[in-house]
DNA sequence: CAGCATCCTATATGATACTG
DNA sequence: CAGTATCATATAGGATGCTG
């Protein structure tokens, strides 16, 4: 299937399903980190991904493992050691994710700017409506 | 910035911010539909995107407009006509989204398969644990 | 170290009714 | 047609404490 073949775009189900999984708050960041670093332990990932809670990192990794995107290797040692890495399928996902990452880095500024303009306009409209209401009241 | 420049990957904020907006349930589908069809009215979008509620389509379009990705053109007619299309910024977003769309179409089958295998293994482990508990009890 | 279990809250989403 | 307003709910996500 080529990039110009839009026939699949008519059927949203596959895209929706994938987005429901990788579109959460942490999955893309986990895949990104594993793509960069290759193999990472649980707490290494937790340190790299700023703000993720232990619970959410666990859930995210389980989901990615379930979807065949991440491998989980347990070493029966004391203290326990668990290593995560991308599967071959996970590595292919790196490509579109990386594209999105680069787009974000390039265009985040423009988005922030657009938001500021939009919000300023909305605030002005709200103020205008207040004046109209005050005028209508008397 | 090149695709191989991973320095931006260390700073998750831009990516997180973009993902928080386009990572919701409908934004990517809206952008995809507008990218395919060029200009669409509200109810045309609603018909194309299966399952979206009026409320969520409105909210999604407002957010995309606020971020400078979608333009909203009102024609002061009766009945009212409102047309949506991608901005230039929105069109550039089409590229990484299209890549993700194609990846989904190609690899959704593998994900479904991986889930089935994972779930079967989990079920087996659960059954095994039940037996162990039964053994311990009796 | 790498988690699991529990409780709690915020938010996203949906359903429904109404409107210029 | 293209919304807005309100209510209801499911779920994502966070905080905390405990464990092998």
UniProtKB/TrEMBL annotation, chains A, B:
PROSITE patterns: HTH_HXLR. It comes from the Bacteria. Keywords: DNA-binding, Transcription, Transcription regulation. The keyword Repressor does not apply. This is DNA-binding HxlR family transcriptional regulator. Residues 12-112 form the HTH hxlR-type domain. GO terms for molecular function: DNA binding. InterPro entries: HTH_HxlR, WH-like_DNA-bd_sf, WH_DNA-bd_sf. It comes from Devosia subaequoris.
